[in-house]
Each structure stands twice: as structure tokens, then as C-alpha cells.
Write a structure and sequence with these properties.
Number of strands: 0
Radius of gyration: 23 Å
Number of helices: 8
Largest sheet: none
Mean pLDDT: 80
Strand content: under 5%
Structural class: mainly alpha
Low-confidence stretches: 175-181
Shape: elongated
Distance between the termini: 45 Å
Order of helices and strands: HHHHHHHH
Length: 181
């Protein structure tokens, strides 16, 4: 392969050679069970978990921007409620940031195949989300951003369970070599 790369480099086409190698490797991965599992993990991490993390970070930045203007959404007639909402901003920011970081860690652990950490982080994400919903509802904040994320969280949980079950299931090749008994 090194000799082929040297020829491609001398022809002035090292990038096209590298892309061809990448496409060939991808096609080979799809033909093997472990390769499909790896590609599925990367697809889930890059298409679902990282965007969810970015969504949480965006929510935290939006809340910080809103708090910088000294008022949260809610009934402005009640000064006690506004004081409570403004006092809760640090806790809400921490919860949003923790959810974003947890999703990034979840993506990492998914790719590493650390299923114990995936389970722990999934549980922590669920608990933090419930805490955030309860706190936001007690503070009479707008719950629409949280409620809009619930279907995505449900899909995420179902996909994590499916991928974990798929990854922990023994492959056919390994089970074919096992002796019955």
C-alpha cells in the first residue's frame, strides 16, 4: 500500500488515493458484523448524541443571555416569582451544561464500548432531565424547549438499548465455534 501511495503521490493524486482507500475500507466494514456495529455506534454518536449535546449547550447559552437581561419568562407581576426565577438561574445553567457534557461523555463511552458507563450516564441523563422539568415547572418557566426534546430523548434511549443489546450479543462466528453443552 505504501508503494501504491508513492505512485499516487508522484502522479499528484494522493488525496484521491486516500479517499479511495477510505471508501474501500468502509465497504469492507459493512460486510463484517463487527464493522457494522462500529459504524452504527459512530452513526448514533454523530447523528444523535453530539447534536443533543449541542442543543443543551445552546439552551444554556440562551438562558444565560436571558438572565443577563435580568428577567426570565414568567409572570412579571409577582416580584417573588421573578426573584425565585432569577435566583434559580445558576442551578438551571448547571443542569443544562451537565446534560450537554453527559451527552458528549455518552457518545465517547458508546464508541469505546463501555456499556457500564453508558448505562450510568443514561440513568444520570434521565434523572437530570426529570429534575430540570420539575424545577422549571415549579418556577413557572416556559417548558416548550424541554417538551420538544422529550421525543428525541425517548428515541435516544431506545437506540441506546438496541445498540447495547446488539454490541453485547455474541457474534455468529464466535458462537459457531463454541461447543454445545
Amino acid at each position: 500500500m505504501q508503494a501504491e501511495f508513492e505512485v499516487a503521490r508522484d502522479d499528484g493524486k494522493p488525496l484521491s488515493f486516500a479517499i479511495g482507500c477510505l471508501l474501500t475500507a468502509g465497504a469492507q466494514m459493512v460486510q463484517h458484523g463487527e464493522g457494522r456495529r462500529t459504524l452504527a455506534g459512530y452513526a448514533m454518536a454523530l447523528s444523535l448524541l453530539v447534536p443533543m449535546a449541542l442543543l443543551y449547550f445552546r439552551q444554556a447559552l440562551g438562558l444565560a443571555r436571558l438572565a443577563a437581561h435580568a428577567a426570565l419568562l414568567g409572570p412579571g407581576d409577582n416580584p417573588y416569582l421573578v426573584w425565585s426565577q432569577n435566583s434559580a438561574v445558576p442551578v438551571l445553567l448547571i443542569l443544562w451544561m451537565v446534560l450537554g457534557l453527559a451527552h458528549l461523555c455518552l457518545a465517547w463511552d458508546l464508541l469505546e464500548g463501555d456499556w457500564a458507563s453508558v448505562l450510568k450516564l443514561g440513568t444520570a441523563i434521565g434523572a437530570a432531565t426529570i429534575t430540570l422539568v420539575l424545577l422549571a415547572s415549579l418556577l413557572m418557566l416556559d417548558l416548550s424547549p424541554l417538551l420538544a426534546q422529550m421525543p428525541a430523548l425517548a428515541v435516544e434511549g431506545a437506540m441506546l438499548l438496541a445498540v447495547a443489546r446488539w454490541h453485547t450479543r455474541p457474534s455468529r462466528a464466535a458462537s459457531a465455534g463454541a461447543l454445545p453443552g
